[in-house]
Write a structure and sequence with these properties.
This protein is α/β, with parallel strands linked by helices and 426 residues long. The protein folds into two domains: 223 residues, Alpha-Beta Complex (Spore Coat Polysaccharide Biosynthesis Protein SpsA, Chain A); 178 residues, Hexapeptide repeat proteins (UDP N-Acetylglucosamine Acyltransferase, domain 1), CATH 2.160.10.10. The protein is built from seven helices and 40 strands. The strands form nine sheets. Strands 15-18-21-24-27-30-35-38-40 form a nine-stranded parallel beta sheet, with no helix packed on it. An eight-stranded parallel beta sheet has the order 14-17-20-23-26-29-34-37. α3 crosses α6 and α5 crosses α6.
């Protein structure tokens, strides 16, 4: 069986991170989201893969190439306009005349869940099988209505009162080529897109069998908001097994599972509490503390007496000594001056809210720090309040306290006034 992976979207809800890279290329546990998807497909026995691309397509192509280094055969299909998931599927139609799997490229899924869908499809021989997963907040998902295990409809982002169930569309399917006919008949939705969920609903309304396969939350993770990256990072690192390939100096302590890649260096006095991931050529310490569920990319420098907690630090970033980064996402090639502090807890200990596409969204997390885009520099002693986002290519002045989002390519300068009482000394 072949697979189609949808990786054409921009991921506007994950800005500023997606200003400089497509959503499927955001790193989780040391690998892009899309790489985790490809490994799940490979482990399930699928090695021929079409990836649908559009936004920053070259970044995807350059990273994965023809797939040979992953023992996969990858071909790229370009979606000329981002017109929705049904339109993206139709890009693959000329290349498929057989049953196939389709997976969204911006989520995490286990190979076990992929195998279950394939087995159900082969056993039941329906027109389609789709994975569904129980959720607490159906208003954020496409929600599936069922009669037994047969799909009757899919409602996009309903209110809790109008949701037909608590089962969300997980974005993993097995189809017969019949789906292409319905995709061609699909009309533009109220969101202005050609929705694959509408195509599936059309199949079901014609009495054609679409089966829902329920999978566990342990086998699936949706990545819809910036804080979802932290949850996905934790999901990934919980499955990690230790691999200590770097240099660990005498006096450094490693506890719990840790993946330390080649040429990484853990200096004396560093305390690394797993699970953690530390990428190639990164330099940690001395005398710093890496707390659980921290992922550090390649060529990262963490200076003396820093503490990093439950955070994602992307490639090429430098964090100066005496800094604290907690429950935060730091983009590529950032430079944090000494004593930079990210606050991650409100005084009232209520869940932190974050501005997403002009609306304040409750993250549901009591602890959530800052999101920095790529190439952000801070002066010494800069401070960030919980839930703040800083666009790419920003400069933050020494001593500045940032309480609200900053757009890309902005220089935030601290203004001070000097007062004197003209005391005469001596």
């Amino acid at each position: 069986m072949k697979a189609v992976v949808l990786a054409a979207g921009e991921g506007t809800r994950l800005r500023p991170l997606t200003f400089t890279k497509p959503k499927p290329m955001l790193p989780i546990g040391g690998k892009p989201i899309l790489e985790h998807v490809l490994y799940a497909l490979k482990e399930a026995g699928i090695k021929d893969i079409y990836i649908i691309v559009h936004y920053m397509a070259e970044k995807v192509k350059q990273y994965f190439g023809d797939g040979s280094k992953y023992e996969l055969k990858i071909e790229y299909l370009f979606q000329p306009e981002p017109r929705g998931t049904a339109d993206a599927l139709l890009v693959a139609e000329p290349h498929l005349n057989e049953d196939f799997m389709l997976v969204y490229g911006d989520l995490l899924v286990s190979s076990k869940a992929v195998q279950r869908l394939i087995q159900t499809f082969k056993r039941e021989n329906p027109m389609a099988v789709m994975a569904v997963v129980p959720v607490e907040n159906p208003e954020h998902y496409g929600v599936v209505g069922l009669q037994g295990n047969r799909v009757t409809k899919i409602v996009e982002k309903p209110s809790k009162e109008k949701a037909p169930s608590n089962l969300a569309n997980a974005g993993i399917y097995v189809f017969t080529p019949e789906i292409f006919k319905e995709a061609r008949k699909t009309k533009t939705s109220t969101r202005g897109e050609l929705e694959l969920t509408d195509s599936i609903t059309m199949l079901a309304e014609q009495g054609k069998e679409v089966i829902a396969e329920k999978i566990s939350r342990e086998d699936w993770m949706d990545i819809g908001f910036p804080w979802s990256l932290l949850e996905a990072n934790e999901w990934t690192l919980k499955k990690a097994e230790s691999k200590l390939n770097g240099t660990i100096e005498s006096g450094a302590t490693i506890t719990g599972p840790a993946i330390i890649e080649e040429n990484a260096r853990i200096r004396a006095g560093a305390y690394v509490e797993g699970p953690v991931y530390i990428g190639e050529n990164s330099d940690i310490g001395p005398n710093c503390y890496l707390r659980p569920f921290t992922s550090i990319g390649k060529n990262v420098r963490i200076g003396n007496a820093c503490e990093i907690k439950n955070s994602i630090i992307m490639n090429g970033t430098h964090i100066g000594h005496l800094s604290y980064v907690g429950d935060s996402i730091i983009g590529e090639n950032c430079n944090l001056g000494a004593g930079t502090i990210t606050a991650n807890l409100r005084f009232d200990k209520k869940p932190v809210k974050m501005m997403i596409k002009g609306e304040k969204i409750d993250s549901g997390r009591k602890k959530l720090g800052v999101v920095l885009g790529d190439n952000v520099s801070t002066g010494i002693g800069a401070m960030f309040m919980p839930g703040v986002k800083i666009g790419n290519d920003c400069w933050i002045d020494a001593g500045a306290i940032i309480r609200e989002d900053i757009p890309p390519k902005t220089f935030v300068k601290l203004r001070q006034s000097l007062e004197s009482d003209n005391l005469r000394l001596g």
